[in-house]
């Protein structure tokens, strides 16, 4: 059911959709269906008839609906497994540009978070924002100790806007799942749920700061990537302070060339950073758009990247991790059988999948790609084709892999912009191979052993005492078992005796009763009993003896 409170915004959404000639996606409910026909009388029908591509119309509608919808569109653009290419490519152009909120407001938020005047901590705070996006805004500042920093502040009132828009998205997704034929396949509710998680992650700047610290530690002293240092004492849930970095935007190829940056090395290092993050650390920056990446201007011959914005990070569990590496290697060895097997083994496709059929489908998709020169092969496109093939075999959508594919596409695009001859495979293979060797080779055993070493070191001195204690416990247990065994034997004997006694009692009593009966019959005893008084004595005597034998003794 649609809640009344949501109705005005829902009507507004429909209005925007109509305005962009999207009446075919007007919420497919009986409630809104009459609105569809309004479209026939409106000029935008005419616009549509002039063949504005549908991707552009959807992009326009999302821009009109506000920043949360724009973000949603951006995330959707990465779901090339769900959307047709014309729409996903158009959505990828969505820009998260939102008018900034006043610097005085940012000041107020920071002071509320610290509980003190901003001047106590900052020598200077630039009220004109450096950048402004839908969730947060970034300001330049200088600390009292002279360090230049950037201060990221969460947009005021944004949690409420997020809640409102998410509510609507859930409503729309629910309706789509129910009434739209494609809805069952695309699982829109799951897509919104995933989006919600990302949004709330981005809202928490403590979380982003922790991501930054972890990534910084992972690349400490590597010379490949520099991550600015977080100022933890000044970081809160809605305010983050970090070292200011100064570099050349990675998309500014002209300046990079003019500064004499080694473009091949730069492109290859981008790939290396990605594979190191994915396969060595299993922790990767998943928002690698060019706006977040800079190049260190001071090291043109030995280029180094500088990264910002750690709101969205990807991780892989050890199983996905291993299967992914094996998949890449199998792919590039054109071992499609192995690729198909790996998909079944990892549980990405159902276990009943026919491996031979799946293998044939993968071969059909990949062979044309491999016909091209290796430096033209796109990893991202390959993964995408694989997802699409997997879908035909009921492959479950794996969000962590989708994030990875999106990042790979980013890295690939970036690398090829910098150095078009970049051979991704040649650059990536040694990293993959090294990772595989480390996972299965003797080094891996050594590494695992090393990881256990501190615990072993702690527990080793206690080992003799533990052995003695364990032996004592075993001895005590053995004695206990013996005692219990003896008791068990006794019990069994008693049960056997008592059942024999019961038998003797019942039989004895029966014989004695029979004797009395015979006595009662007197001369009427049947002939077959012969001499009745004699039989009485025999039965009575035998019964009496049995009763005597069964008499309890102490
Ligand atoms: N430590 C830093 N040093 C220098 N500039 C920075 C730093 N952090 C952020 N910036 C600048 O501010 C911009 C926005 O920062 P950031 O990407 O973290 O914010 P955002 O709100 O997540 O924006 P978006 O969602 O558009 O990526 C960056 O693109 C970069 O230009």
UniProtKB/TrEMBL annotation:
Top-level lineage group: Bacteria
Record-annotated Protein kinase domain positions: 124-456
Kinase is among the record's keywords: yes
Documented EC number(s): 2.7.-.-
Listed GO biological process terms: regulation of ubiquinone biosynthetic process; ubiquinone biosynthetic process
Record's bilayer topology term: Multi-pass membrane protein
Pathway assignment: Cofactor biosynthesis; ubiquinone biosynthesis [regulation]
Active site: 287 (proton acceptor)
Pfam families for this protein: ABC1
Transmembrane segments: 500-520, 532-551
Compartments where found: Cell membrane
GO cellular component: plasma membrane
Segments forming a coiled coil: 467-494
InterPro entries for the chain: ABC1_dom, Kinase-like_dom_sf, Prot_kinase_dom, UbiB, UbiB_bact, UbiB_kinase
Keywords: ATP-binding, Cell inner membrane, Cell membrane, Coiled coil, Kinase, Membrane, Nucleotide-binding, Transferase, Transmembrane, Transmembrane helix, Ubiquinone biosynthesis
GO MF terms held by the record: ATP binding; protein kinase activity
Residues binding ATP: 130-138, 152
CDD domains given in the database record: UbiB (cd13972)
Family recorded in the similarity comment: Belongs to the ABC1 family. UbiB subfamily.
HAMAP family attached to this UniProt entry: UbiB
Biological role stated in the UniProt entry: Is probably a protein kinase regulator of UbiI activity which is involved in aerobic coenzyme Q (ubiquinone) biosynthesis.
Protein name listed in UniProt: Probable protein kinase UbiB
């Amino acid at each position: 059911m649609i809640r009344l409170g949501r109705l005005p915004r829902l009507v507004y959404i429909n209005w925007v959709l109509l305005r962009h000639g999207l009446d075919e996606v007007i919420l497919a409910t009986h409630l809104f269906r009459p609105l569809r026909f309004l479209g026939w009388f409106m000029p935008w029908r005419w616009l549509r008839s002039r063949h504005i591509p549908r991707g552009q119309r959807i992009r326009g509608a999302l821009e009109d609906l506000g920043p949360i919808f724009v973000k949603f569109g951006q995330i959707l653009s990465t779901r090339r497994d769900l959307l047709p290419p014309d729409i996903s490519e158009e959505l990828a152009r969505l820009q998260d540009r939102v008018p900034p909120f006043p610097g005085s407001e940012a000041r107020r938020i920071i002071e509320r978070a610290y509980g003190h005047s901003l001047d106590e901590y900052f020598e200077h705070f630039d009220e004109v924002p450096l950048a402004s996006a839908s969730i947060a805004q970034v300001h330049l500042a200088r600390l009292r100790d002279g360090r230049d920093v950037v201060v990221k502040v969460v947009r005021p009132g944004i949690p409420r806007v997020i809640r409102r828009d998410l509510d609507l998205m859930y409503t729309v997704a629910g309706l789509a799942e129910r009434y739209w034929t494609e809805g069952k396949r695309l699982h829109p509710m799951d897509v919104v749920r995933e989006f919600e998680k990302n949004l709330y992650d981005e809202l928490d700047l403590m979380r982003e700061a922790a991501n930054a610290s972890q990534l910084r530690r992972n690349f400490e002293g590597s010379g490949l990537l520099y991550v600015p240092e977080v100022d933890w004492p000044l970081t809160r849930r809605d305010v983050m302070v970090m070292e200011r970095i100064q570099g050349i935007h990675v998309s500014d190829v002209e300046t990079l060339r003019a500064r004499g940056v080694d473009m091949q090395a730069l492109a290859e290092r981008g790939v290396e950073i990605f594979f190191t993050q994915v396969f060595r650390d299993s922790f990767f920056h998943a928002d690698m758009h060019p706006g977040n990446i800079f190049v260190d201007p001071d090291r043109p011959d030995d280029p180094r990247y500088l990264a910002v914005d750690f709101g969205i990070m990807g991780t892989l569990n050890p199983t996905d991790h291993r299967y992914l590496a094996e998949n890449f290697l199998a792919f590039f060895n054109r071992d499609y059988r192995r690729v198909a097997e790996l998909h079944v083994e990892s549980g990405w496709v159902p276990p009943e999948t026919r491996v031979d059929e799946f293998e044939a489908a993968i071969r059909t998709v990949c062979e044309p790609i491999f016909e091209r020169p290796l430096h033209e092969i796109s990893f991202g496109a390959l993964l995408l084709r694989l997802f699409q093939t997997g879908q035909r075999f009921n492959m479950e959508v794996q969000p962590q892999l989708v994030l990875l594919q999106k990042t790979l596409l980013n890295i690939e695009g970036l690398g090829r912009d910098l150095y078009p001859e970049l051979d991704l495979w040649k650059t990536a293979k040694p990293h993959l191979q090294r990772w595989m060797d480390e996972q299965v080779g003797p080094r891996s055993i050594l590494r695992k052993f090393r990881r256990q070493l501190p615990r072993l070191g702690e527990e080793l001195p206690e080992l003799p005492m533990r052995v003695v204690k364990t032996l004592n416990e075993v001895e005590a247990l053995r004695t206990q078992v013996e005692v219990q065994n003896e008791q068990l034997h006794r019990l069994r004997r008693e049960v056997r005796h008592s059942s024999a006694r019961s038998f003797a009692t019942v039989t004895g009593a029966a014989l004695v009763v029979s004797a009395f009966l015979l006595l009662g019959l007197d001369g009427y005893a049947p002939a077959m009993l012969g001499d009745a008084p004699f039989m009485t004595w025999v039965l009575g005597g035998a019964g009496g003896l049995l009763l005597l034998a069964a008499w309890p003794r102490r």
